[in-house]
Every structure is written in structure tokens, then in C-alpha cells.
Structures
1.
Amino acid sequence: MSVIPLISSVDLTSPLLGASVAELTAWVQQQGQPAYRGKQLHDWIYHKGVRSLADISVFPKQWRAEVADIPIGRSSIHHRAVAADGTIKYLLQLADGQIVEAVGIPSDKRLTVCVSTQVGCPMACDFCATGKGGYKRNLARHEIVDQVLTVQEDFQQRVSHVVFMGMGEPLLNTENVLAALRSLNQDVGIGQRLLTVSTVGIRDRIRQLAQHHLQITLAVSLHAPNQELREQLIPSARFYPIEDLLAECREYVEITGRRVSFEYILLAGVNDLPEQALELAKRLRGFQSHVNLIPYNPIEEVDYKRPTSDRIQAFVNVLKQQFIAVSVRYSRGLEADAACGQLRSRKQ
């Protein structure tokens, strides 16, 4: 399995969450402590869920007092919304007071966490509640990893899958996303193939991601079968033609040997027609890929509607007839403001 490289090192003021055993060992030695305390610190952060260095009982009392103000990097739960199906959406308050969303999605023996990578999002997709709320900043690696640990602790169940499909565009925060992927894989212990990074498509960033030869899943938010409609739904698409995006995706498949998942939100009367399904199939023919169709979750800010079940099935049938791998992914927890950014918008 490919190894996700270390991106940054720990200094005396950085939150410790997201750091590797090696980084934590170097840090404790800088503090004049023996090297084995690095492994102890790692265990308490990732497996015991400690939130303050002062609470690590295996450390000397005097040293705990000296480092008590150094942050581990945990957030607090600002709000928690529980849906009938067991899905829980969290609003997490960060150290600077900013609020981000994370979602815990239980199913059978799995627990999937949907994490955010930015406070808000600069992409301003026309159908997206997060995009309507504007952009504040990137999340640091500890703020991404913290979302997974918070959900894991609240559910009292080990997280099995993580999808980077929450607030923000992950490939506009590549350094911290790569650092968080490394930590989730090597520190939290989630297999690379169980980690998914979603992107709307940023020029050259998919190619750059491919160079790391990771075994993660790449999910590309396509949402339209042609450039004209894509620009209508995704303003940034005018800077990145769909032909160029798909060419870069093909390079990703060639370099990594991993198929690409294409996310396609179905909007009634906009992009859900059978002829549009046929156009999409022609674009993806011969591509090592999979299409995830996502019936739209309505938001108050725009008038888009969810297609009927018959319209969804007709779209699926066309893709299958064209030998395109396809599945329909219904969002969980509709009662809990299912669309990304909805709950944050309401509570703020």
C-alpha cells in the first residue's frame, strides 16, 4: 500500500492532533522527555480521545502542568441533530469560533463520517447551501481529523469509512487534506481504500493528487453531461472545460490504477432527461469509472426540485443500457437538514 507522505511537522504551538508517532516523539524529546512518551502521547490522542495534555495520567505531574496550555486540537459540539434513521449531523465549534458540519452515517456494521475541509466554500455551486453561505478559510489537518474522532466518540463505534464530501472544496486545501488522509490512515487506522475525496474539479489538482499514488477513492462532482449546463450549475466550470476535466481524470486512472467515481446530483427538469443520460454515457464510455446518482435535497435558497422515482429510474436505465456502472445514492437523514450546509445556515 502506498504511504501518504508527512506534510508538516509539529512545533511548540501547533495543535498536536494529526501528528504521527514520529512527530510526537520528536516533540516530546524537544520537551526534554524520553522518546517512549511519544508513543504514549499518540495512544492517548488517537485511542483514548484525550482533550488536554493535563489529563494524561501516565505523564509526570510537573510536566503536565508545564504543557497544559499546548492545544491538542479538539473541537466542541455546538449542535447535534439526529434523524430517524440514526444519521447524526454535527455542528462543531472550532478554536476561533467558526462552525463546521460533520455527519455520522451508520449502516449495518459500518460507520461513515462525512467531513468538511473548509469553513464555507468558494465554489458557489448554484444548488448548494454551503456555497450560498460564502467562504471563510481552510481547515487545518487537526480540524479535519477531529471531526472523525468526535463522531467516533459520540457513536461509541469505530469509524470504518470517511468521505471528504462536507463543506468546502478539498483540492483547494490539498496540503491539509493530504496530512489528514495520512493521519486517518496511519494514526486512526482507516484503510486508504475506505477514504474518499470529492472534488468539483480544480485544474491540475487531480493530476497532482495522482502523483502520490494513493489507494483512496476519487469522486468528481460532474452534475452535467456538457459544458454549457455545467457552467450554469457550477460557476467555476467556465475556467475548466469538461473535456479537460475528464482528460485529467483519465490520467488519474492510468497513474493510480483506481477508478474514478462521478457524482451527479439529479435536478428535476434540469439535468435528469433521458437524452442527457445518453450524452453522459457517451462521455464516459470506455472510462474506468462509476456514476453515483444523487437525487437532489431541496434547499430554501433556490427552486430546484428532486426528480420523481420514475424519472430517476429512467436515467439509470439509459446508463445501464450503455454499459455505464451506476448506482443511486439517497441521502440519509433528510429530517436533519440533509443537504450540506443546511443545518449550519439555519443555526447561524
2.
Amino acid sequence: MRIERSHTRLDRVFARLDREPERPVLLAAPEMSRHRIALFAGTLAFYLAIVWAVLITSWLVRLDWQVMFFRPYQQWPEIHAFVDYYVVLGQRGPTAVMVAAWLGWRSWRQHTLRPLLALGVSLLLLNVTVGAAKIGMGRLGPHYATTIGSNEMWLGGDIFPSGHTANAVVTWGILAYLASTPRARRWLSALSAVVSLGVGMSTVYLGTHWLSDVLLGWAAGLLILLALPWFEPLITRAEAWILGLRDRWYARLRRPVPAKEPVSVPVTPAPAASAAAEAAVCEPVAAHRTRTPVHLAPGPHITRSDRTPVTPAGSRRPPHADRHPRNTAPAARPLSGS
């Protein structure tokens, strides 16, 4: 009796992945549409508004100090261990390795380098923009604050905007940006927003960032994701260049060895005597017996029986008393007496 194994959902997923031998059709790069441009403009305005509110030491700075004095890590100490692990989802090293591994597998399955190149471009933009803002504004964190109620700007710090929050937005949001279907894009966008906001609030809980740092970091990461379609032509050219370099390298490794030219041997025409001899061999045996051999010189010839036998020096035959030369009569044997 044959029992068939029922296929689970995971088996169906892997079977679908195995039937993906070529690049999917739904991998079109997002375009800079009007909706995206409007979101980019609104996020940029929000970014500048937060910077301005901190620079003028507005109500936002007062809220930062109130949250700092509240000390959330002392109010809810039971979740401190969980938050310590959860905040790792915003650290650049571990998250970049995890996401790069997943996108590398997708690149191999879909026969395209676009996922890895998009991740590289987004991380490069993150380092340049967020790093420049951190160094340029030089704000100190809550643990290093000097004057109560001040904005702590231009004092050599590097926490404004929050790098953890911006990195979480970009690293997990790139999965939504590269999704192949609209449904997957919506779900991954919501998931990345929740994760990045949770990472930002975790830094506020631990007292390493002001609340305004988290808001600015969230806006900074979102600006990078919204601006990625402008870099799609660069990603396409980079992919074509890398694949062309790979093809040239493979062609160089697999170049066939040039075959050696055959050595031409000069053909010497056969002499007339040899050609005649070959013609004589090819003729029938009966005709060969009736014609005179061509290698004999002209003139009278004697028969074989009239020729004088020629033996090499020193006869090979042993001497014998009864032997006599050819063409001579044997000597008479004496008669023995009876």
C-alpha cells in the first residue's frame, strides 16, 4: 500500500522557488511618481522642522528633558533585558549582514544583482547623510548633557539624528522597496515601520538618545528610501558593468587553446621506374608471365639453367665425400669382391 505524503505550506513555497529559473517579470524598479515626490517633500519638511525646533530650543527640547528625567529604564526595569537585545535590530553591522544574506540569496535565485546593489547604495547614502548631520550639529546625548533645558548643540556630540533609528528604517525598509508584489510591499512597509519605531523608542528607554533624535532619525531613513528611484539608473549601469566584467573574465578563463598548424611535408613525385613497377604489380598474374620484365636491359639473355651458380664466400653446406659438382657425371664406384 503506497502512502502519499501531504505537502505542507513550506513545501509549496520551496517548490515555487525551485520553479524560478529566470528573472521574474515583476521586478520593475519603482519610479519617482508624483505620490512619491509628495511624500519625499513632506518628509523633508518634517526633517527641517525638527532641526529648527531643536535649534531654537522650542517645546520639543523641553519634552526631551522631561522624558530624560522620567528615566523609563527605572520605571519599567523588567523589560530592560529584552530591550537590550531588541535594540540590536538597529545596529548597522548585524542587521546589514542578515539583510545582505537574504538579498544575496534572492540575487542568486532571480539572476540579478539589483537587490545587493540597492542595499549598498542605500547604506552608502545613510553613512554620508546621517554621518554628516551628526558631525555637523554635534549634539550631546542625555548621559552627557551639561545644562538643563539647553539643546546641547555644537558641543562635539554625535547623536542627532539617531543612527540606530535611521539604520533600522533603511535596512528593513529596503526589503519592502525590493518586494516583487504590491501586497508584499505593503506588509513589509508596515513591518519595517514598526521595527524601526520600536528601535528608536528602545534608545529613548535606555537613555542613549533624546526623543527628537529618534524623530529625526526616522525621517532621515525614510528620505533615503524615498530617494532611491533617482539612483536606479546608476544601479542598472553598475549591474551591467559588473556582469560584463564577469563575462569577460569567464571568456578569458575558458579561451580555447589555438590548434597547431599541420606541418606540410613536400611530396616528391615517384620515379618512372617505381610507377611502372606499381603498374606491373597491379596487373593480373597471367599478363605478367607473358611480358618481358621492364627492369632487364635490352639484349640476348640466357635461361636460368645456363647460369653459373654464385654462392657466397664459404659454402654453408658441410663437406661430403659423395657430393659432386653440377653437370658432371659421378665417378665410377669400385666393385667390391664377392
3.
Amino acid sequence: MKRTASRTGILAALVGLAVTGLTAVAGPAQAGPVQHQTATDARAVAAYWTPERMRSAVPIDQLVQAPAFTPKDVAKGTSTIIQSIPNGGGAWTGAGKVVQTAGRVFFTMGGRNASCSGDAVTSTNGSVVITAGHCVKYQGAWHTNWTFAPGYNNGNTPYGTWAAKSTLTTPQWEASEDMNYDVGAAVVNPLNGQKLTDVVGAQGIAFNQARNQSMYTFGYPAAAPYDGTKLVYCSGSTFTDFLLTKDHGMNCDMTGGSSGGPWFLNFSEATGAGVQASVNSFGYNFLPGYMFGPYFGTDAQNLYNKAQAA
């Protein structure tokens, strides 16, 4: 559905993403998750992302515009939790699994170096990173030089940088950048002969779960007052957005750059482990201090299944 210029202007004024807002792009409807094979050589991507380029990468919300909204329920299927095999808004000072699985995402978009956040999840191929849809594709163009830096800390990449061999998103994000389906994934290349989750471990992931539960969310906000150097988190009860989407909402002051960071159910502060059930997506400009993330329903599950089979 095309939006009028006035509606676009209203949305741009009302909504800011953990990138700033996105504009719908007309495109053919898709029956399933959409996958993009990256042509970039993994060694070239690794060489490109120097510590200086990582520090200077701008949060993606400074490069985008206004989102598409369709206030309807996301399709649901059978409740599914895929457990990982054991193997606010303040800086995360704890330890545990999350300081290895959560990381900063870097890519080139429209000739600019930009950043988001992501998380390594359990998968059959051991190589899946879950992030936001706008962190892999925006306005008809797939981002290039896409890489994941798990455990990123002030320019340090203790677990290396993992270049994507393919990136994927939901059919709804591909067709119209519908904020209810702002979910993306990357399948990363092996590094030094090892798979991602063999090195950093993996979080569980869940679909079709009950709404309005307590959750934790993590990310690398890089817009003021944050600077992208450290892992930040929020925690608390969630609610269902009653305005323009059916997303999860939480009291959280993370800013641009946190997009794509994981939301966890059943998170343990002692172990740093949880079950991922959403990602940081957007915030309303007129409602500061709140973050929203898409419900992981059937389409998010289909995306995950395609990514782990790639």
C-alpha cells in the first residue's frame, strides 16, 4: 500500500529508529524469507574493518528516514523454543554468555560506514546472527561489507570479525519495510577454520511466545549520550504497542546503533544466557525512553529456519 506524502511526513515526525525511521519501498510480495548472497571476499571484509573504521562508523539511524506501519497482528504458529546447547539502559558489567554472543554489526550503506547490533543464536550450521531487517537491507539495497564483531569492546574484537556470506530478511520487510517484521539474519563465514558458535557459544531462540512478559534487551547504542564502545542493557516488563504496530515495548533509553540487539526471555544475570524473542527496532520521537521490537511469529521462524539451513 502506498502512503501519501502527508502520512510519510507524519511518520517521520513521530518515529525514530534505533536507526531513525524508514520509508516503505514498493516491491513484489514474497512467499518466504528473502536471502542475499554477498559477493565480498571474507578476507577483504576483515581487512576493510580496521579499528579506526569501526570507531567512526555511524549508527544507521542517522542514515535512514521513515518507517512503514501496518497495525495488525503478526501471524502465529505453534509455540516453539529452541534452546541453546549448553556449551533501563546501563552498561552491562556482568559476564556470562551474553558478552560473547552479543556484538556490534558493521556494514557499508550508501557509501557510508554504519553500525547496528546482533546476536549469535543456536543453529544447525553454527553460523547464524540475528539482527534487525533494516540492518541488512534498506530501501531496496542490501548492505555491503557486512561483518559481525561478537564481544566488541571499545575497538577491541576479542573473538574476531565474521564476514557474512549471505544476509536474509522477512518477506514483509523485503516488500514494504513493514515495521512489524523488522527482522534480519546473517549467515557468517567460518573464521580460522571454526564456526561462529563453536567460538562464542549461542543463545536460544523462541517463537510464538506469550506477550507482555519481563525481558532483557542488549545492544551497542552509538548515538548520544552513548558512543558505541560498550554493551548496554535494559530490563523490565514489556507491553504491546497500541499505536502503530503490534511490537513489544519496553522502558529503555538506548539510542541509534542498538538496532538489531537481542531481547531475551528467561534471562539469567548469573549466566548471561537467555532465549531470544525479539530485536531492537525503533522508538517514537514523542515517547522518549521506550524501545520497541517485533514479535517473533511464524515469519521470523521461517527466516531463522532458512538461515540455519543455508
